[in-house]
């Protein structure tokens, strides 16, 4: 990477593709730290805030790539990632010499490996670096960032990642970041079933659900979901912190990759079927805590 | 209840039946607070520590009941509870006038209601008051105690409960304590599947499982089990904090009571089938974290 990456003192040019709720916050932190930031987003309106902060707009992703030493992508689905990285107009075919690519989308480990190999064949560097922490973590620059790719590339971009997150961990070679993010989602999926079932049971038994949380939240049943999402389930607040449709995407990625490894994940499979029921009931754009509706039959 | 229940200043006589690992600690705290404590346990050797602290031994449960104003039971299975409370030699037929009974065993809500009704018909008071916090919580008097029964009886025995626990909550009428404990176990059951699956997936993907925990433990996937039991799974340490055989008992109670209420709990049902596989593989006396062995196929 050309020059140093110290905050506020760098000649490194950053490209940021995908300036949705999280991406806009993340790119904003880089901009505030003095980096020149070039952006592209499918819906230009969502980049306006960044442009007002001095980011440079391009009408096509490949033009971002042509201007940037480090290109960060924060997209929706693996198919978006595939489309934007590959092909004649893709990022990898329009990159600066020796450029770095960081895909921070939650995407498939197999695709991350493919991008890494293709990048290496062109003398480029690609890392997969999905995050957890949601829009609040992105806004407060407190993301957990899980990185896959080679060590030299990780060290080179780490100062940028430290601007966006507080828990930046190199998890291994290409794909390891995505695999780690899948571990995160696998853990959450079954726990959401448990939390939903406990509240549904409490209600059926005639208990005061909020009072039940007082007894169980701080002990061995305790979890982030029980503390943060159970109260929303009780209140009937199904507004999205994290969208059901995105969670179902992640579950599919995890199940596909597990199948490739010959691993059965019965809990995750159950979560998939329950969340698909939720989608059939129109829950695509609810938050993941809406699983309670399916379990409680509401 | 005769006299006051202030620590160290009470004429209230306590009976404690079931002085296993947890029961012995709990009875010990009452004794250290100045209460006269009468004890019975199936295996007398396990009461020796208490007898050295001045507790009074009886060869039969009914003799404990004859001496005590408040009788606490901390047993293994609902069948033990049923046997010790009912019948000619049972606690309820040998109680002091107006005595209080606290069943702190994790047992069935239906049985708790039955005990409560039978007690009331004799002018006695019964509460169900199961706990969470395990042997450490019992030793350190930091249990969470979930209480079902009428308010007057709860208020009368609360000073005793406050000696054994730090989180004493009245959850409702008879059975509500047991229902609440079931909510605790339901939440844990599915989360154990998620934690086990995440670690099995991490291993299959070639990740360093401990490094994965650094990325995921403090965010939305975080839980008591992930922080406390996942490291033991990784280390292959399946020593019991909480026995598989006891957890399977609790799962059965929860599923039976859910069925009585017409509620389906697919996550808990899956947990039951996985834990039963673990028992078929000889895991009865392992800790609940041994579920990892089944998921990872180890």
Automatic annotation (TrEMBL), chains A, B:
SUPFAM superfamilies xref list: 6-phosphogluconate dehydrogenase C-terminal domain-like, NAD(P)-binding Rossmann-fold domains
Claim: Oxidoreductase is one of the keywords in the record: yes
Residues annotated as domain 6-phosphogluconate dehydrogenase NADP-binding: 14-172
Ranges for domain 3-hydroxyisobutyrate dehydrogenase-like NAD-binding: 175-294
Keywords per UniProt: NAD, Oxidoreductase
A GO MF term: oxidoreductase activity
UniProt key word Disulfide bond: no
N-terminal signal peptide: none
InterPro entries cross-referenced by the UniProt entry: 6-PGluconate_DH-like_C_sf (IPR008927), 6PGD_dom2 (IPR013328), 6PGDH_NADP-bd (IPR006115), HIBADH-like_NADP-bd (IPR029154), HIBADH-related (IPR015815), NAD(P)-bd_dom_sf (IPR036291)
Active site: 181
Superkingdom of source: Bacteria
Family listed: Belongs to the HIBADH-related family.
Designated name of the protein: 3-hydroxyisobutyrate dehydrogenase
Organism: Paenibacillus cellulosilyticus
Top-level taxonomy: Bacteria, Bacillati, Bacillota, Bacilli, Bacillales
